[in-house]
Amino acid sequence: MLSSAQQSFLSGIFSEEDISFSPEEICAYGGDSSRLFAMPWAVVQPRNVEQVQELLQFAHAERIPLFPRSRGTNVVGACVPQGGGIVVSSLNLNAIRDISPTDFVAVAEPGVVTAKLQSACAAKSLFYPPDPASHRISTIGGNVSTNAGGMRAVKYGVTRDYVLGLKAVLPGGQLIECGGRTHKNVVGLDLTRLFVGSEGTLGFITELELKLLPLPQQTASVLVGFSSLEAALHAASEVFRAGILPVAMEFMAREVLEALSAVTTAPWPEATRAVLLLKLDGSEEVLPLELARLSRVLELCSPSFLATGQGADEEALWEVRRLINPASFTVAPDKMSDDVTVPRGRVVEAVAGIREAAARHKLVTLVFGHLGDGNLHVNVMYDKTAGQLPVAKALKDDVLKVVLGCGGTMSGEHGVGMTKYPYFNRQIGPVERQLMRRIKADFDPRNIMNPGKAY
Amino acid sequence: MLSSAQQSFLSGIFSEEDISFSPEEICAYGGDSSRLFAMPWAVVQPRNVEQVQELLQFAHAERIPLFPRSRGTNVVGACVPQGGGIVVSSLNLNAIRDISPTDFVAVAEPGVVTAKLQSACAAKSLFYPPDPASHRISTIGGNVSTNAGGMRAVKYGVTRDYVLGLKAVLPGGQLIECGGRTHKNVVGLDLTRLFVGSEGTLGFITELELKLLPLPQQTASVLVGFSSLEAALHAASEVFRAGILPVAMEFMAREVLEALSAVTTAPWPEATRAVLLLKLDGSEEVLPLELARLSRVLELCSPSFLATGQGADEEALWEVRRLINPASFTVAPDKMSDDVTVPRGRVVEAVAGIREAAARHKLVTLVFGHLGDGNLHVNVMYDKTAGQLPVAKALKDDVLKVVLGCGGTMSGEHGVGMTKYPYFNRQIGPVERQLMRRIKADFDPRNIMNPGKAY
């Protein structure tokens, strides 16, 4: 808890509307999309770098834990103020400072919603590629802090690949500048990339310099079904073998198709057991040709159906993908989801292992996601009121075993936060973890930044 | 110097052909492409990880400096054993362990020559995009240690973007594993990327896991001249504005064209003052269309000439680019080169500033390079025997001022090594530098790994 002296010091930094100690107001900042919760001691919403510096100087001196937060869309509890402390919201740091069509750089504060940045870039014919599914509600600061992935990662990579530079305030109040507006830069250790995916444990990011690309003129997509998972994955590898690097390559396993049929009229015939959804982009002139070429490759793989679309037709194809999460809840009322990732060639093995584990625990488990990266979303569906939570946990545990057994990672794009923290040692060795903690101590010697998270 | 006890301990780790203390033999390992030199105390060439571990345990205990080295193509002195110590050559660690067409991953030891890895990948229709100009003679370990760039960075990014995981031995002998074979991974701090560009200061890399892409079917190029630098840069921005992301976009300023005319029959007409060289890639079917589209955009920018090529014709277009370095020496016998980088939109300003500085110091200075990234190679030509070295140094200093004044960086792809070390503080603040040094101490508390380099 904060002493009244501490409260009054904080009230001197922030104007009244930017600070709250009232439980009714601040309880909304205690949870995130993980549905975990811890009550914060206070919430502050800095409007400028100076306020962030004063706050981090004070919190460092007083050893008060700080929990950076933007819109709380994190699904692994990375925003939850466990153990208590001050939630530092970036929502007032939401300016797009620059979008430069000559430098191909955007400069944004951490609280800018990613989709808003993307639209502002598109208005200048520029393209910020990373597109986590949450891009309409999550922020660029949160995306950087978790190294967010998304659909387009197959062709364009992840958030890390677009962060050229950043400014951050360290505990103690010092402002540091890492990287800059240049597209290439090799001077000293790469502090910029160290912040990417650090889940708010090193400092508070106040500004980001992001790499932009020219906006592709058009996109087109293909939805294609197969009679087995193996056939779908064979088709996926045939696409790559033809030298095609799609923007996105999503897949949905049988259980997902079944769940979807409960909420929508599926566009695929009965015998379909796995579906791929692929997106291409390019110029008006060549995109139709690329789409035809992709379709030819897929047609040779004996699909149960194949539909292509551009414009509104393309949106319709992606609609089924968006329905997966709502459809999940027709299976069971509770969901435990993961974003495990395996080497691309071991997806069949991973899905088979996950299915076996699900059968053993008798819980329906939906596997879908970013096939092009081997990044599988695994929704374990269960019923808490029927006492299935321990079963779901045991299954999650088995899923992790399968994934690590395939040379995979427990997180491809969500991060570790709180929910994967107990599993950390299964993937990362003690020497590597010790190194991470020593590096954190270099930035945050008193361990006030999002303590107990990530590593 | 090594004591005889130390020499005999080392001789117990390495077989006779893999260790030398003989000045005649080891002096070849004292320099690199920077032409700087320091005499090493010994050279060892480990054949396996165990030897590396024993060496790093011993060197840590005895506080003996180690200087990792592959083929010594570094141009900033990063391989030079200044102050003395043991050169650790990776030339015996040169196995390609795996090239997986299903995982899209290559696993290689650090001593593998980059072009060899690329050919081995291409034989399986796979593509390792980073292509530093040295790719035929430099190694993947060296490329990772300097985060090498290259021509294709405009479309494909730099070495950093392709390192999925690595193994390294730390001082003390512990082997660490960072990242892995998955294309996405967000678990803990990003130690993998911390090694990229670290110039051998953190540990000795023993294995790299690299991301591969499907091999594009074909490439095609355009060589195009303009009557002024401004017109060339305007054309470059028109290309991006049309939504075209070329694989490569090189440029050569007037002084470069003049130097080239001394060694080759230039394909451009007299009035040409700046040349762009662009490369595209794609499928057989669409590449001709993309090439035509690119040519149309360029034709609208009033070029003095335009030539396109595929296959052998394409090679011929690139031949002039390769002649720049030999041509430099027709201007003056000595060269001081830099790889400064500015924000893409400030290239005109940077080139103008560099030209002014060159005129002030009365030294011909060739500016060319990776326009698409704002990465300019600046060859200051001088004559040491005519006492011009101090003038060249003063000019280098002015070039750096111009570049930093444009929001640029002193190195886009070569790193800092020894030659840029004295300038480090001009670009990086004291807090950031202190952080880098603390991080180094987490890996290497006794500062034995490539001491006095980089940061």
Automatic annotation (TrEMBL), chains A, B:
Checking Gene3D superfamilies in the record gives: 3.30.465.10, 3.30.70.2740, Vanillyl-alcohol Oxidase, Chain A, domain 4
Enumerate the InterPro entries for this protein.
FAD-bd_oxidored_4_C (IPR004113), FAD-bd_PCMH (IPR016166), FAD-bd_PCMH-like_sf (IPR036318), FAD-bd_PCMH_sub2 (IPR016169), FAD-linked_Oxase-like_C (IPR016164), FAD-linked_OxidoTrans_Type4 (IPR051914), Oxid_FAD_bind_N (IPR006094), Vanillyl_alc_oxidase_C-sub2 (IPR016171)
Domain (FAD-binding PCMH-type): give its ranges: 36-215
User: What cofactor does this chain's UniProt record say it requires?
Assistant: FAD
Q: Which UniProt keywords apply?
A: FAD, Flavoprotein, Oxidoreductase
Query: What are the GO MF terms of this UniProt record?
Result: FAD binding; oxidoreductase activity
Descriptive protein name: Glycolate oxidase
| Source organism per UniProt | Desulfobaculum bizertense DSM 18034
